[in-house]
Structures are given as C-alpha cells and as structure tokens.
Amino acid sequence: MDITLAPDDAPYLSAGLPANSVVAERIESIYPELSQALRTFADYVLKYPMKVAGLSINDTVNITGVSVASANRFARKLGFEGYAEFRAELLRGMAPALEPVEKLRRKLSEESTTPDVVAASLMEDIANLQGSLGNLDPARAEQAVDMIVAAKRIFILGFDNAAGLALVMAHRLQSIGCDVRVVESGGGSLSAARHLARFGPEDLVISIAFPRYLRDTVSMTRLAHQQDIPILVVTDSQTSPLAKLGKVVVYAHARRSFASTSDAAVLAVLEALIAGVANRKPDAAAAAQRLADVGFYWFAYPEEEEKALLPRPSKSTGKKDRP
User: Fold this and answer.
1) Are 174 and 202 in contact (CB under 8 A)?
2) What is the pTM of this model?
3) How far apart are alpha carbons 248 and 235 in whole angstroms?
4) Is pLDDT above 50 for 125?
5) How many CB atoms neighbour CB 190 within 10 A?
6) For residue 10, how many other CB atoms are within 10 A of its CB?
7) Which domains does the chain have, with CATH numbers?
8) What does the pLDDT look like over 263-318, one tens digit per residue?
9) What is the Cα gyration radius of the chain?
10) Residue 197, Cβ neighbours under 10 Å: how many?
11) CA dist., res. 316 & res. 323, Å (int)
12) Residue 280 to residues 143, 146, 232, 233, Cα–Cα distance (Å)
C-alpha cells in the first residue's frame, strides 16, 4: 500500500525517533541480535516513527516488506506485550520532539517578519540544546571523555560543514594538551587515510556526521574500525550510518528548519565534551597556560588598540620660531 503524504505533514512524518526515547534505546540494545527482517523493520521505525505510529500493522508491514508475524515478534523483542503497546510508546517518545517543531511551524507563518524568523531560529536551537541535555547519558558521556583523555593521538574526521566543527574541536583540545589532527584543507579522503594508516589501538578517531551524511566520513570511519582504532562517534540518531561503528556514540539533537543540520547545536555538544576533558586531564591547565604564554604577542587587547588609534603628537624641530 502506497501512502501519500500532504506537504504540510511530511516534515512531521519523516522526523527521526529521538535517541533518548524508550523505543530507540531498546532497539539499540538488541539490534545486533536481530534477524535481517527485524533489522529492516527496526530501521524503518527509527527513520519514520510517526508513520509507524499512525498506520495499522498491516499497512506498516506492506511498506516495509516484512510479515505481520515479524512485526509482532519485533514488538515483543522490545519488551512490549504486543504491537499496540509498542505503537503507543512510539507516539509518546515523539511528543517532546514534535512540540518545538509545532511551535516553530506556527511562528513561521506567511505573515512572519524577519525578526520573527530570526527569533524562531534561535528558539529552534534552544530546543536542540534542551533535547541534547535531556538525552545526556552520564555513563556514555564519561566514557567519551575517558576515551579522549586516554588517547595517545586523536584524529577528528569531518568533511564539508563537519570539517569546520572538527577544526574548532581540534583547536580546543590542542589548547589543553591533546595531540590532535584533522583532515587538511583540500586533503580529502586520501589525506585522512594516510593519517589512519599510522594510527593504532592506543589512538582515537572522532567521527562527526549528521544528515546529509557524507560517504567520505562513513568510508574513513569504516577503515578505522577495520584497523581496530577506537572510534568515538558524534551523530544524530541510531539510524546514522556511523552509529554501529563507534565504540561510544554521543547523540546530539541538531534539527534545523532552514538546513539539514544545526551546526550550532552540534558545536555545543562538542564544547561540552571538551569541558569534560579539561576537567579530567591532569595537565590541562598547564597546557593552556603554555599556549597563553606563547601566544601573548599575537593577542590583541582593547586598551592597546584604543591607544593605537589616538592621534600621535607632532614632532618638534627643537628650533625657536623667529620673530
């Protein structure tokens, strides 16, 4: 059965399942042991939870190509008594994610002014940060920080927009004494492969990818996985192609109405991890002080800049004016 969505409904029905929802967490815990049919159904649930919650079991299995028995078995594997209970929990899990979207949708009406749009965009990122905070798994955050602190060398994988995020993260980590590398500007996948060829189990790869996921990031992360290099993944949900490759996966809410991803929301999560590293790394303060000492000459201070703008006194010739 083909389901045709009205244009206004499509953003709702294609919104992924929040990573901290009960259903998403249960799927993540049992995913490796699922059969191919159940994995197909799980992938569809994670990507289109609102469609699954709104359709009957018969309509959903027709779309996914699995049997009714498989759908019922999937619900029971997640710990629910039946498919109806599973679907109800799916809907509950989507409520926090849809509330800010609905507010934004009301705000961005045809009558919206430019200040309205700017304010709504900022509100969207506030909702993203609240979602990431609510999704914060203390144990997972501690594992992520431990991996960074323990790593001999760190390589941050990020292409396109994520390259800028990787560069900011690298600068922050370098300032507190971490040995960090990123993909050089113009280097591409071959440059990344050269770095990874010299990395091993004592090092760390941090992979950053959000919709739309880039093939280069996925392939290089897979290469690191094949070489048994520990991987810390920062991504949006369990449906991300990187989620199954990371030793630890940190999820960030990064929805954006005017683009595929909010870079500001991702950066906030990266900054939070860096703060955790600075708190745990014994020599972080000393490393930051060394950087400040070395960079002192290049720092600009407001008082000095103000003095530079003052008019200079005219030079005197030392000769008296003749009468």
Assistant:
1) no
2) 0.65
3) 11
4) yes
5) 8
6) 10
7) 10-105 (1.10.10.10), 138-286 (3.40.50.10490)
8) 999 999 999 999 999 998 887 777 777 766 666 666 666 666 666 666 766 655 55
9) 25
10) 9
11) 18
12) 12, 8, 17, 20
